[in-house]
Amino acid sequence: MAERGARLLLSLLCLTFLYPATTVSRHAEKGTAARPFSPFWFSVEPWDTLAVRGAPALLNCSAHSGDPASEPTAPQARVEWKKDGTFLSLAPDDGRRRVLPDGSLLISSVVHSKHNKPDEGTYQCVATIDSLGTIASRTARLTVAGMPRFSSQPAAASIRLGDSQVLACDVNPDLVPLARWEREREPLELSSRLVQLPNGALVVSNASEADAGLYRCMVENAGPAKTSEEAQLTILPETGEERQLEFLVEPLPVTKVVGASLLLPCVVTGYPTPYVRWMVGDKLVEESEGKLELVGGGSLLIYNLTEEDAGVYSCMADITNNTIEAKAELTVQVPPEFLKRPANIYAHESMDIMFQCEVTGSPAPTVKWVKNGDAVIPSDYFKIINEHNLQVLGLVKSDEGFYQCLAENDAGNMQSSAQLIILEHDVALPTPPPPSLTPDTTDHVTPGSRGVANPTGPTPSAPRDVVASLVSTRFIKLTWRPPAEPNGEDLTYSVYFNQEGTNRERILNTSRPGEMQVTIQNLMPDSKYKFRVVAHNKNGLGESSAVLKVATQGEVQVPGPAPNLQAVSTTPTSVTLSWDTPLTGNGDVLTYKVYFMEKGLDLEQDIDAGALSYTLMGLKKFTEYSIRVVAFNKHGPGVSTGDITVTTLSDVPSAPPQNLTVEVHNSKSIMVRWQPPPPGAQNGEITGYKIRYRKGTRKSEAAETTGGTQLFQLIDGLERGTEYTFRVSAITVNGSGPATEWSTAETFESDLDESRVPDIPSSLHVRPLVNSIVVSWTPPENQDMVVRGYTIGYGIGSPHAQTIKVDYKQRYYSIENLDPSSHYVITLKAFNNVGEGIPVYESAITRPQSDPIDPDVDLYELFHAPYTPVPDPTPMLPPVGVQASVLSHDTIKVTWADNSLPKNQKITDARYYTVRWKTNIPANTKLKTANTTNLSHMVMGLKPNTLYEFSVMVTKGRRTSTWSMTAQGTTFETIPSSSPKDVTVVSKELKPRTIIVNWQPPSEANGKITGYIIYYSTDVNAEVHDWVIEPVVGNRLTHQIQELTLDTTYYFKIQARNSKGMGPMSEAVHFRTPKTESSDKMANDQANLPVKPGSNQPPLDHGFGSSHGKPGITGSGDNHILVIVVIISVGAFTIIVVVVGAFLCTRRTTSHQKKKRAASKSSNSSHKYKGNSKDLKPPDLWIHHERLELKPIDKSPEPNPVMTDTPIPRTSQDINPVDPSLDNSLLQRRNSYRESVRNTPSTEPLPPQAQPPCQAEHQHPEPEGSYQDSAATDDEPSASGSYCSAGQPPTAHVRPTHPLKSFAVPANPAAIFESPALPSMPLLTQTGPQLHSVKTASIGTLGRVRPPMSVTVPDVPETSKMLEDVDSVLASLPSCSSLAPRSNPVPFPQSYEPDELTEEMAHLEDLMKDLNAITTA
Questions:
Q1: What residues contact 1044, with CB distance under 8 A and at least 6 apart?
Q2: 268-319 pLDDT, tens digit each
């Protein structure tokens, strides 16, 4: 034994010496060593992929961390995938999509249809290592090839030997790589003579007799191949007759990416064989092997494009005395490239840092920043500098992680990441920086750090007498005295400040050494700020001064915003408004003013309202209005409410559709087209159109209905050569509006023929002027042949110099830019798909230049035909009057005028307009374009609350205009589409009952954030309306919640709000308050982990009384200890009830004393009730069978205990004596709510004599404007009424947001069993000054009151029989239990002396101790 003791003593001595040494060593390491950066990068990233429906698709991705040589056990990254910005939910049973072990995404069978495209979209790989952070890859587009469709098919054609011909085959652009040609149903081998164009067409150049045959185009997809119609190519012998030089295919403007190959088509026909050459700018293009090659008789093939290849290319074809030219611009795009990648950074908290990122590319790339996989939203603390760099102000620990610079343009996107490590204040920033870890990142230490690696002397003490010498509404001036111990000269100072309730501390340095004052600007009015000052000398950072708290001045004392503003549309032309009195009135509110404005207009109207509601009349139907309310007091208008939007109800359209046209399609069908009714007359969303038609003058009608966006309908199944009349009406959910006027069309007697070329035009007339000739004609007499257009040829002495094609509807044309006094020959031919018909000739001599002023000929009146300007080699005029009309949060309508059109602005030629737009945010300058043939365009799919710029360009043939002047429009706001992020909860120092909630704004705010709502509860699975709410006004990102219960787990969610409404809630984050009142730093270290509803996550503490991990408690049935304990507990409880009841009732006084007591009762008749067991409160000595808890009985120090309504407080420390006179006001102010957690009520009715009528004349009055829960019925009276309903089990008042406290820590709720409710005894409580008030949590709308919860005490099935015995015992007791109702304090009947009561209480206390011993055993 002695030897063992000596060994033990020696061990203790060793530990005593080793522990300090180890501690010192750790502190030394902490003070000098900085945690190294951890490499984390993508070795493989996804790329754009073209997938085929039904086939597999693979998107590659692989992420790595650490150095494999030095860290062989580096943690593996967890890879997830985003599609269109949202994480893919890949269920284990989803066999179609899965993530491979290396992180790649495999789609085993791509799904794609017209209405279901689940796989097509933008994908992004996201890799996470919990100990490091998250990085996101570049984005990749997965495109699914659609069903093959031929917009044009090959047609029969003839070609002369040695000439060129083009066979059309226009398929979907994404399917062109899958298209191929067959001749005589055999695969056609392409060559330099047989070339397939980028649009799928086939060029046959230098034709030979072997080229004759049947050709067809074929598209091979995942399913069966789709083939076009077959077309016969006929080879004709060369006659030697001169043929006009013309383009079969001209080059078009094209955009390609660096490194790609390109074919610029240029196909020319004519005889003699034309000579084709290319020029770029003013330089001749020469063929070079591997770079430039002429194929297909004249098309230019360019390999491996570079930026230098960009320019305007001209294809020129020469023949004897004739040259034609076609131009097209080649744009070469360059994907983004990094000139400077972001560097890894070490920093301390409260510092400001800058991540630099320089990129280049064509077009100029846009840059956005991502932190740990989430987009960085610019704010007061996160700023984008010089369009590319990211500045973070006032660093906090949660800013640590990986930051990525994502650069993107039309040619592609790429990313580069850097790591931010925030060191402890006692860890010096490492210098010099360590070497680079990966090629993508460099390391960087923020300059101006406060850490000093090796201080050489003492630092200054704290500055003295820090005071706010000047305080205004938005700035504060601080002054101070130098430190008592400066320990050096030329001191500089740093002022650290933050707004109270936030944890981001800012730094402001003095401008020169020795300066002892500074002015902090840009503060918020009526806000509290904390300031402290630190001095610096050459040795480093000194001590901090004490924290100075200063509040900025408030602005004018005007009313606050009116809460709970609501708007309801009651009719299509009226809206009813209601609101509450402002919480901060700053005096009596004199009146209210309602401001309302139609969305899309800038004119706001207002109207006075004297009450808390108003009905706006005379509004437009189905129109969105923005409404706000301002309260006025003697100081003037107050703070406006946030804008709310309401749309008036819809109605039937009040106007018919516009521009109804009918066009005969063939002998059995007619195409009907129309435009929607004017926007102001639609009166709702157009859900469809009804087309009514009838034959001739018959009264019977047929009808067809279309969808809301379809503006045409082909009516088929008609009779040949029959006249039909049509009219169209628009439909909303309310019904059909007025119809258009009847419009008539007659079907053809027979379908037109296109088996041969058209006949000769029946007439041709010319009218010569000085510089032009007006040509007019009539169509061929044979109207049965299809005419698709007319070809006009003209020239001096020969009609083959110039050729122009016009539409088949056109009947005249003006040939401009002619020479005066010249003899021109003009020819006109009709053509169709078979070819050109027989020409008709005419000649004319233009007038001499010396002729008098040319008469002003009105061509429209002369020929009654549409205006058709002739092409002009000069550039066209750009559109004018561009306007951007905002229609919704994602749609803007752009309109313009064209001065090159006639006054009626009617478009009759082949011109089209290009609309381009971009956002005004420098970080996103990507241009988008769209083409249209109208004078307006609807731009959809825009981002909400974003400013866009629009410009328009007109193109006609080879002529284009410059871009017009820009117009701007800002899309409307809509509700946030994402929740606040980075929600954290920390305990406030020295205040364990107070917590601080911090968060970041939502990634997609879709408007200006006007506030937040914080929801918190102790039950993560509770309904949303049962959570406590804390509103946060404005864009603050932190909030303080006080008076919470100690040692309790709370769950927090946050919801953002803008003028349009509320966004989604964040995931629940849980936090457990400290156990004691003393400051517990460990509480700040608890993880704020997201908790998913339904998870029933237990509290973190599994100490005594917790059921976590105990099968006996959770009711598994494997352990019978619970059954034994419950039976013993119930037995002991029954004995106590019997003994106490018998003892009290047998010690009754004499009949004289009974009469005296009766008289005493009569004197208090106003408090007299006849109650039964259901009117009683639960006993203070009771058993939670589902939790195995004991609740102690209160011993009243007063001689006459009374029954009181005692809500259960958070903890015993919360109980403070208050004046009993405040009870009624407190009751009116209390905002509580009811939650039914009662088990199945007792089905055994009480005897009739035990059910006296209720007496409610002394119930507390219900506060005005209070809210009664919809679940409250006559069987569930509120707290202010008496509990007299028959069959109601005993209840107790329980705060729903805080757990019941007892001897044990609350555990998970046990299973609820159906059994009769537990009978109860009177609850003895204190009176008078001992009345406790408890702050209850408010929920829902301010000013509403809900009654307290009713809670019954369930029991387990094994104890049901024993509890029935207790019921029978209590029922057999004498009527000494006639007690006051729970809502009204009433003195106990004076049935025994105070000394006797004290003795009985002592006896009960002994019994309780015995029962505790039994349950503990």
A1: 993, 994, 995, 1050, 1073, 1210
A2: 988 888 888 899 888 888 888 778 888 888 899 898 899 888 999 999 888 8
